[in-house]
Amino acid sequence: MAEIDARFVQPENFVNRELSWLEFDYRILEEARDKTIPLFERLKFLSITASNLDEFFMVRVASLKDMVHAGYTKPDMAGLKPEEQLVKIGEKTHDLVNLQYSTYTRSLVPALKQNGLRIVGKHEDLTEAEGAWVDKFFQDNVYPVLTPMAVDSSRPFPLIYNKSLNIAALIRKKDGEGEIDFAMVRVPAVLPRIVEIPVSEERVVILLEEIIERNLPALFSNCDIIAAHPFRIMRNADLSIDEEEAEDLLKEIEKLLKRRQWGEAIRLEIEDNTDKRILKRLKKELKIQNPDIYQVNGPLDLTFLMKMYGLPDFDHLKVKPYHPQPNPAFMNDDDIFANIRKGDILLHHPYESFDPVVKFIQTAARDPEVLAIKQTLYRVSGNSPIVAALAAAADNGKQVSVLVELKARFDEENNINWAKMLEKAGCHVIYGLVGLKTHSKITLVVRREEDGIRRYVHLGTGNYNDSTAKLYTDCGLLTCHPQIGEDATAVFNMLSGYSEPLHWNHLVVAPIWLRKRFIRLIEREAHHASTGRPARIIAKVNSLCDRDIIAKLYEASCAGVKIDLIVRGICGLRAGVPGLSENITVRSIVGNFLEHCRIFYFENNGMPEYYMGSADWMPRNLDRRVEIVFPILDVELQQKAMHILEVQLEDNLKAHILQPDGSYVKVDRRGKMPVGAQDTFCGEAVLAAKKVEDLQDPVNTRVFVPVESPN
Question: Is residue 527 annotated as part of the catalytic site, yes or no?
Answer without folding.
Answer: no
